[in-house]
Design a protein that fits this description.
The protein has about 130 residues and is an alpha+beta fold. The protein is built from 3 helices and 7 strands. It has a 4-stranded antiparallel β-sheet.
Length: about 130
């Protein structure tokens, strides 16, 4: 994206698959792409993709990673990367990612609840089609 706050619109088989984006400086570009990769390559659910732990390699070559219940990863980091910093789950450092997907005629919206995000669901079409 030209802006770190620009949403990504991703097509799959020629159809709109998802729209995702968020705010979080240069870190959001990487983490938005990570969410997209989890949904496309790993076939993760929208909820799992948005709420899975985040990572970021900063300009000083320090790997920042979010705490996860997966202790195996946390224990492996010192052997994989010389400089690292483990952050709390939901740390604002990683920014906020929100995502909307469409499954047939149903839209699903998810925001990272650990970062105080909130989504609203429309249970029926608006009465006034102009709004």
């Amino acid at each position: 994206p030209v802006s770190s706050k620009s949403p990504l619109m991703i097509k799959k088989n020629g159809q709109l698959f998802t729209i995702l984006g968020g705010a979080g400086s240069d870190r959001i570009i990487f983490n938005t792409a990570m969410v997209a990769a989890r949904m496309i390559k790993d076939n993760s659910s929208i909820f799992a993709a948005v709420n899975s732990p985040r990572f970021f390699l900063d300009y000083k070559n320090v790997l920042h990673f979010e705490w996860s219940a997966n202790r195996k990863f946390s224990k492996a980091v010192p052997d994989l990367w010389p400089a690292f910093r483990q952050r709390e789950s939901g740390d604002d450092y990683f920014g906020l990612v929100t995502c909307i997907t469409r499954n047939e005629d149903v839209f699903h919206a998810v925001a990272d609840f650990r970062r105080d995000a909130d989504c609203r669901t429309a249970h029926s079409p608006p009465q006034n089609k102009e709004h």
